[in-house]
Amino acid sequence: MTQTQSSALYGPVAEDLILVEDLLESVKRVELAPLRLMLDHALAPRGKRLRPALVLLAGSFGDYNLNRLVPLGTAIELLHTASLVHDDVVDGAESRRGRPTANAVFDNALTVLLGDFMFANAAEMVTRTGSLPVTRLFALALMKMTSGELDQDAAAFDVARDVQHYLWRIGGKTAALFGHASQGGALLAQCTEGQVEALRSYGYNLGMAFQIVDDILDFTGDEAEMGKPAGGDLIEGTITLPALFYLDSAPRENPVRRFLSADGEREGYLPDALAAVVESDAIGRAQGMAQEFVDRALEGLSALEASDARHTLEELSGYVLTRRS
Amino acid sequence: MTQTQSSALYGPVAEDLILVEDLLESVKRVELAPLRLMLDHALAPRGKRLRPALVLLAGSFGDYNLNRLVPLGTAIELLHTASLVHDDVVDGAESRRGRPTANAVFDNALTVLLGDFMFANAAEMVTRTGSLPVTRLFALALMKMTSGELDQDAAAFDVARDVQHYLWRIGGKTAALFGHASQGGALLAQCTEGQVEALRSYGYNLGMAFQIVDDILDFTGDEAEMGKPAGGDLIEGTITLPALFYLDSAPRENPVRRFLSADGEREGYLPDALAAVVESDAIGRAQGMAQEFVDRALEGLSALEASDARHTLEELSGYVLTRRS
């Protein structure tokens, strides 16, 4: 993302995000050469830094102390990246954001340890906030994330799961860390209890919408824009909201079920399965649910005084809904 | 380990270790069924609980507050177990302590996530100590552990490494967590700075001796007592102290080098390589170095007042040297 795009999205905190970038850069400076090489690879793709932006924006509602907020933003981005590194090992993914994954370049064994090092580094980083409660919430968010990931893997190809189960899973996998970013930022800024809760709720619900849109894009997204081919979730057996809505109203015999229940070589069934979902009302229904979560996120904000930061958070929820990658 | 063995080894804190056992038991109570199953498997083998014992023994030199010491002991045991779970994935190990590994029972993907969950749980557990400094040291110890593991994997089969490099690696892989156990226990008990440093030094040096003995047992140990066949390190390409001492004084053409540099099928060369090390003076030299670290550990203790706990720590160092599994 360019500086201009960042300013447009993150308003008052866009410039301070460079401090997160610098701290992430410092993480790469380790003595052990193979580790340095791997960290360089894992931390190279400059993502949107949405989670660190949430930390700083939430911190803007109180005592905006960058000495505490920047380490939290960095810790959360590290944690997020570490979990992607392990996810790619778990899924055997070959590319992400148009680049080869760490496990594709190095091997699975070293990549597991790379992720562990990054988790440890994230934990060390969060203690630099000086706050034990924030450190504790950080560990709890990681427990939820991992539970969500584990559930996704354990429930793969199981068509008996429902929307409730899906929402529980993405709540852990994605929304918990979004919620922690905004809650943690508010706590570090010594916001009032009401502000902390409003910001936590905003972050959590934004995270829910974010993941639903991610799951929609896996059906409708453009490979060039996404940096990965469509249909990855179905290939992994991950039954996301669009597939669930589709299965809910499709006849018992349908292309998605045929794909999921195929023995062995199921790839030939993929194009029909994707087309069936995209042509049904499932995408629209999933978009509707993402909108509902954005509405809840905005509801949280309404309790906060008007400010540049609040305006930016409002705009951000629109971006999350309309983004294309 | 039976209660009698535990009492003999851990003296005044043996009974309180049951509280660590209870807290570890509580960790298994998660809602997600597949996770519960995996935690049950990973936490089932009742190890020696040496690291939690170190926490409690160190805590005995100050304010012996079990509400703080038991969570630290539990967190460290969880961290240790999580790292074994990931090591077994990394090494593709089939059995440990005579039981199938988690990755052998479940699959690699789920086992990576199981380890992640346990790391997160360990981080959550250490925050229950109420101490940010101890939490921070815990994260730093994990960073050192992972660096040591990474280095071991990256340097596999590389005969150009030396004893200095080996000591650096086991310092990270093993001794850092031993050092953190005794240092953390002392910090939580509000010991004086001198006591904290004496206990940290004891734990660190004990950990060095512990790992050297582990590496010796991988050559000399009895499969039935160890729960795994001998020679596992060489098979992984991990060149430990006995192999280093052997290579140091053997002629250039020797069975160990032949094994390490074999292309492809090297298993046939293993028996000769093991025999060569065992029949040389390398084992004796490695035992001598383990003794040196125990001496340094005891030196640390000499600064502390005589007590049951100090006596137990002294005895423990003898056990670490003479253990057979």
Description:
2 copies of one chain form a homodimer. The first copy, chain A, is an all-alpha fold and 325 residues long. The first copy, chain A, has 17 helices and 2 strands. A two-stranded antiparallel ribbon of chain A has the order 1-2. In chain A, a hairpin with a 2-residue loop joins strand 1 and strand 2. In chain A, helix 5 packs antiparallel against helix 7, helix 5 runs parallel beside helix 8 and helix 8 packs antiparallel against helix 9. The radius of gyration of chain A is 20 Å and the shape is globular. The mean pLDDT of chain A is 93. At the A-B interface, helix 5, helix 7 and helix 8 of A face helix 5, helix 7 and helix 8 of B.
Question: What is the compact description of this entry?
Answer:
With about 325 residues, the first copy, chain A, is mostly helical. Chain A is built from 17 helices and 2 strands. A two-stranded antiparallel sheet of chain A has the order 1-2.
Q: What are the main properties of this structure?
A:
73% helix, homodimer, two-stranded antiparallel ribbon, 17 helices, 325 residues, 2 strands, mainly alpha
The total count of strands of chain A amounts to 2
Number of helical segments of chain A? 17
Distance between the termini of chain A: 12 Å
General form of chain A: globular
Estimated radius of gyration of chain A = 20 Å
- Strand arrangement, largest sheet of chain A? 1-2
| Largest interface, chains and sizes | A-B, 42 and 42 residues
Beta fraction of chain A = under 5%
| Major pleated sheet of chain A | 2 strands, antiparallel
Mean pLDDT of chain A: 93
Secondary-structure-based class of chain A equals mainly alpha
Report low-confidence residues of chain A grouped into runs of 5 or more: none
What is the chains' assembly state? homodimer
Helix share, percent of chain A: over 70%
